[in-house]
Amino acid sequence: MKERDPKYNISHKKMPNYSQHEKFVLSKPYDKWYIILKSSKEIGSIYLTKENEIGIFIKKNMQKKGIGFNVLKTLMEKNPRKRYLANINPMNKKSIRFFKNNGFKLIQYTFELEIK
């Protein structure tokens, strides 16, 4: 999680601490959640929610090697659905390009009004 750039998050404003993240993981928030391994080393993760939303994270030094394409394809083959979604922060151009290049299309814009 340390490698993730918080400006690309859509679900939280700041990165959770270890305890918060552990609590989140133990709540089993996803339908499927896989750790991506390369030579027995963890290089990322991919998940599928109960609403068919896909999230993917791959360490920067492992990007642009076809790994994302392969794990996305495997996720969809192992978990067939009629429709998949990917909610992406509009500033995350790499992720937007990745999903477009893998056949996904833009279907909505979401706006937020935060009251403090």
Q: What descriptive keywords fit this protein?
A:
3-stranded antiparallel beta sheet, 116 residues, Acyl_CoA_acyltransferase, 17% strand, alpha+beta, 3 helices, acyltransferase activity, transferring groups other than amino-acyl groups, N-acetyltransferase domain-containing protein, single chain, GNAT_dom, Aminopeptidase
Structural description of this entry:
- The chain has 116 residues and is α+β, with helices and mostly antiparallel strands.
- It has a single domain (6-101), classed as Gcn5-related N-acetyltransferase (GNAT) (Aminopeptidase).
- Helix content is 26%, strand content 17%.
- The chain has helices spanning 18-26, 67-78, 93-101, and strands at residues 32-38, 41-48, 54-58.
- The protein has a 3-stranded antiparallel β-sheet, with helices on one face.
- The longest helix is centred in the middle third of the chain and has 12 residues, at 67-78.
- It starts with 17 loop residues before the first helix and ends in a 15-residue tail after the last helix.
